[in-house]
Amino acid sequence: MSDHHRISTDELLALLFKERNLEAFLQRNESAYLMPSFSDYLNAWCRRNLAYPEQVIRRTNLEKSYGHQLFTGKRNPSRDTVLQLAFAMKADLAQAQEMLRIARRSVLYPRIKRDAVIIYCLHNHLSLEDTQSVLQDLGLPQLGGRET
Amino acid sequence: MSELKRIVADMETVFAQSGYPADFLADYDQMECLASHPGRETFLVRRKDSGETAVASCYDRTAFPIRPDIRLLRELNHPGLPRYLEEYRNERMICVVREYIPGETLSVYARERQLTLRQIAAIGEELCDILHVLHTHEPPVIHRDLKPENVIIRPDGSAALIDFDISRAVKTEAQTDTFFFGTKGYAPPEQYGFGQTDARADIYALGVLLRWLVTGSARENRNVRIDGRLQGVIDRCTAFSPEDRYADVLKVRDALRAVRTRPRRIRPAVAAALAAAAAALLLCGFAVGRWTDWLRPPERIAFAEPLVERAVRLQLGKARGALTPEELAGVRSLYIYGTEAFPDFDGYSRCTVDGSSPGSVRTLDDLRLLPGLESFFMGREGLVDVSALGELPQLRSVELKHMKVYSVEDLARDRRLEYAVLFDIGVSDFTPLENCPWLTTLDVGLNPVTDLRQLGTHPGVQSLGLMWLKLDSLEGLPARFPAVRTVSLQHSGSVDLTPLRELPRLETVYVLAEQAGAAEAALAGGGVTVQVTEN
Fold first, then answer.
1. Which terminus in chain A has less CB density within 10 A, N or C?
2. pLDDT tens per residue, range B59-68
3. How many domains does chain B have?
4. Domain that holds residue B516
5. Could you say which of A98, A107, A134 has the minimum Cβ distance to residue B8?
6. Number of domains within chain A
7. Size of interface A-B (CB pairs under 8 A)
8. What residues of chain A lie within 8 A of the CB of B508, using their CB?
């Protein structure tokens, strides 16, 4: 884990729970279905960050051919897969929410305990492994478990 | 205590007071929030013991004015409505768990397919059947929030109606609705307080939904031509006064069935003329066909531009041999840069102006052979006729860079365009793109634009590219692009960025290092990230 300044769990969540902040955070987007494709987003991200899809796929622990299908647009990712990719791409919270919107999946919602853990871990740049460990200790479903 | 243990302990403390019924949290994992409004939330949940997925609507009894009518939910038993499973309560909240209906929302389903008139009418008929169950319940139940997002199309194609949060049983003594619920655009005038809503409110919303399915817009637009019979049904469903609408949904269903099943009536005189013309053509055909190879197999498909053909063959993995119309219909994306074609975005995106030679493509007429094309990426060509781009029914994403196009009018005929990167294409007027209501990404960098009025107004655009523009001012940008979340302003000179502070959703501004100081000063305290890029 990196050592940069972290705000505490309750500080972060208290901030998000304020109604106006929650609204802005969720950015209810009536036209979420009007986004560019998720595969275009992934490829553009690789281009911007001079990364290869293989590197990203390896960091998510996704099955290789499935990962490639996400990059070519042949498959649409589940919500958990988007979040795994977000960790692999070292996305911050805003970028992860953007990725969920583009993949047409529900954005992270801080009143759900599992989402709150993920929000906190993304915000503080914890690794996917550490995040899974926190989820497990809290008895919550880990990322990439059974698809919903 | 390790940091991870501390996070676990903090989370336990924070969520000990979450307010949801303890037995609900003991039985179910909350997986996603599907909808959130003040006082009511809808969650996708998973039962811990069986792993079964369900949907839970949770109401804060102190904040939400209407409580769910549990008896009503139990009684409404129809395959087109989610089945009631169980409920949980504490002093603050009620959580009602219902069947999860797998599938796509109608908004997504319709967007990803080119629905025919018959399919639209069939969906409408099915919704009428479901609404009929609600409206004939005792007392009648009005859904009051019928919209594409609240209709699920199952994998087998059948429809279901979800989200009963604001449904209500009609109280005959009430004169007006106490609270406004519903969705702007789909709710009829009386739902804004002009009277009490009854079944005809759902008929109004159904009419708007049908219009959306046909035109892509909930608002009336007489410029879009609709089948006359369906237009008649929509007009009558959406009449201002409830008295002028269909009296009940079964009448709407019958009208839609007529649209779907009965051929268009042709006036006798027209029919006679058509018959005579057909007979004459038949005779000519026989006469000519006897002396020519009239019945020979169709000609081999030929491309006007070799590079477009190469790009198509790369998609199909077929370097040579004849191409069939069926194969061509399966092509979804094309990538061309300079003199090269690429199989995917990856190769295309590595090309640069300096590292490539200009190509010789002059027309995109070949794209008319590709009715399923969704994405078209092209860069570093000369003067190109792009008129074919406006005739592709599935086209959603277009990237044209470093070429001469001069006008986006043809492109703007494609109303469903979502992603348009139009960089350095010699265009000074982007207002025709106002015709594309679903546009979310617009990049107009390095074009002869000095005034924002040349860009038009785009309420849906979230990502805006203004690199290399010599804009006089950004005044008025928030009014023209109210939904923008990211703006690229590299190489845009010293234009004042303070108007960007008025963008309510702005998250990130991309600038060069030399612009960063001014950008941070202009946007200080607004929660906007100033991101520095190398070029």
1. N
2. 888 876 666 6
3. 4
4. 440-535
5. A134
6. 1
7. 122
8. 94
